[in-house]
């Protein structure tokens, strides 16, 4: 009798874990730039995502996580093939990607058509949480106009009257400038000239010569990764930083300060992350990230980490069954995310509603010196999901 009781107890202990183990690993397709001007951004996202998974013991929603990776090269013309291979050949359960807005738009189209869950850990293309929005597409980052708008408001409040803009000619640059213009002109400023060059070009000299001749009160620029390093250095080398302040979305100085050095000192930018937030969640995250990777985290690492948190929230609600799309989405929408950036909720368009900080470069840090825009939501124009 005693023996029987013991085996029943033992059986009861074995059954739940055997059940959990019966679920196969969840295949995560990471489609990110691991080469080119955005390579550092892709790697930071991947690191952040993996860190969160490791903190959960390698499993989320009861399922072990395995990865399939593809280098998207920030190349829109290869994007449809790349995501189709992940979905149809590799049979991934969910796709995480990407950095470049043009690539992300192609991915969103395929995700929408196939019903595949897509979590975007950076690319801010406004259209994805606008007319292309869908129940199965989420963003852990921002929409392009958000940091631009926040910086535009700040620039107007600082009393600048006219501005020139310089960016790459593609969705992210153009939408970032549009956001800046909206915030700046609402505050009484005027954007007098919008200069562009093709992505991922770094031949800035002719554009800087135009700025020097026009002498605007301020220059607003969107660049990121390797391009941002070169632009900020060239701007300073031309001596322009002495007389015409250069401002931007935080991508201009995030993850880049080691390489930009003296040329970035004093610059003001707006972003949903900074290096001295000094909140418990961020302090723990920064410590864990530095320990794991021997690197300081940046905004991209945070967005990768939060993409994994989103997946975890959805999988927890569906007991690991990602095919339960309604319950998965409902859970993400209902959650207040405890992020290293501070807490945020999701809009009806599946984009974070979050604070945008005003930051100033001091040494190797983007120091938060105020709030540029509080609880800023994506305008989500044209999105019809509820
Ligand atoms: C974008 O293409 O959406 C993007 C790329 C780098 C930083 C921010 C946005």
Secondary-structure class: alpha/beta
Give the rounded overall mean pLDDT.
94
Supply the number of helical segments: 12
Number of strands: 15
Shape: globular
Note the beta-strand portion: 15-25%
Report the CATH superfamily of the largest domain: Response regulator
| CATH class identity of the largest domain | Alpha Beta
Order of helices and strands: HEHEEHEHEEHEHEHEHEHEHHHEEEE
Provide the number of structural domains: 2
CATH topology of the largest domain: Rossmann fold
Bound molecules: benzoic acid
Description:
The longest helix is centred in the N-terminal third of the chain and has 21 residues, at 2-22. This protein folds into two domains: 21-142 and 277-350, Rossmann fold; 145-271, Rossmann fold. It is an alpha/beta fold. The strands form two sheets. Strands 7, 8, 9, 10, 11, 12, 13, 14 and 15 form a nine-stranded mixed β-sheet that branches. Strands 2-3-1-4-5-6 form a six-stranded mixed β-sheet, with helices on both faces. The chain is built from twelve helices and 15 strands. α2 (39-55) crosses α11 and α5 runs parallel beside α6 (171-186). The termini are far apart. Residues 99-101, 122-125, 144, 172, 224, 251 line the site of benzoic acid (BEZ). Benzoic acid binds at residues 99-101, 122-125, 144, 172, 224, 251.
């Amino acid at each position: 009798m005693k023996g029987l009781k013991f085996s029943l107890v033992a059986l009861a202990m074995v059954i739940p874990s055997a059940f959990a183990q019966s679920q196969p690993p969840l295949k995560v397709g990471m489609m990110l730039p691991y080469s080119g001007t955005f390579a550092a951004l892709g790697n930071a996202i991947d690191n952040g995502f993996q860190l969160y998974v490791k903190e959960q013991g390698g499993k989320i929603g009861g399922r072990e996580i395995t990865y399939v990776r593809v280098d998207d090269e920030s190349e829109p013309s290869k994007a449809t093939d790349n995501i189709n291979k992940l979905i149809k050949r590799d049979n991934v359960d969910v796709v995480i990607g990407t950095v470049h807005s043009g690539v992300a738009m192609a991915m969103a189209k395929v995700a929408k058509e196939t019903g595949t869950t897509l979590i975007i850990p950076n690319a801010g293309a406004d259209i994805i949480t606008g007319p292309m929005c869908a129940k199965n597409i989420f963003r852990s980052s921002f929409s392009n106009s958000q940091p631009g708008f926040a910086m535009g408001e700040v620039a107007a409040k600082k009393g600048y009257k006219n501005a020139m803009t310089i960016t790459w000619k593609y969705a992210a640059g153009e939408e970032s400038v549009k956001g800046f213009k909206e915030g700046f002109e609402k505050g009484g400023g005027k954007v007098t000239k919008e200069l562009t060059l093709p992505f991922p070009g770094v031949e800035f000299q002719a554009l800087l010569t135009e700025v020097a001749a026009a002498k605007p009160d301020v220059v607003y620029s969107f660049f990121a990764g390797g391009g941002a390093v070169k632009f900020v250095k060239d701007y300073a080398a031309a001596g322009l930083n002495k007389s015409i302040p250069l401002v931007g979305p935080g991508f201009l100085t995030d993850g880049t300060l080691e390489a930009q050095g003296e040329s970035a000192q004093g610059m003001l930018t707006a972003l949903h992350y900074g290096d001295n937030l000094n909140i418990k969640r961020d302090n723990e995250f920064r410590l864990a990230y530095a320990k794991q990777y021997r690197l300081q985290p940046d905004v991209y690492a945070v967005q990768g980490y939060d993409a994994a948190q989103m997946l975890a929230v959805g999988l927890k609600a569906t007991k690991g069954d990602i095919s339960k799309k309604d319950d998965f989405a409902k859970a993400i929408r209902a959650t207040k995310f405890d992020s290293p950036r501070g807490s945020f909720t999701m809009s009806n368009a599946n984009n974070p509603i979050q604070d945008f900080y005003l930051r100033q470069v001091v040494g190797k840090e983007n120091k938060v010196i105020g709030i540029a825009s509080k609880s800023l939501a994506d305008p989500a124009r044209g999105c019809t999901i509820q």
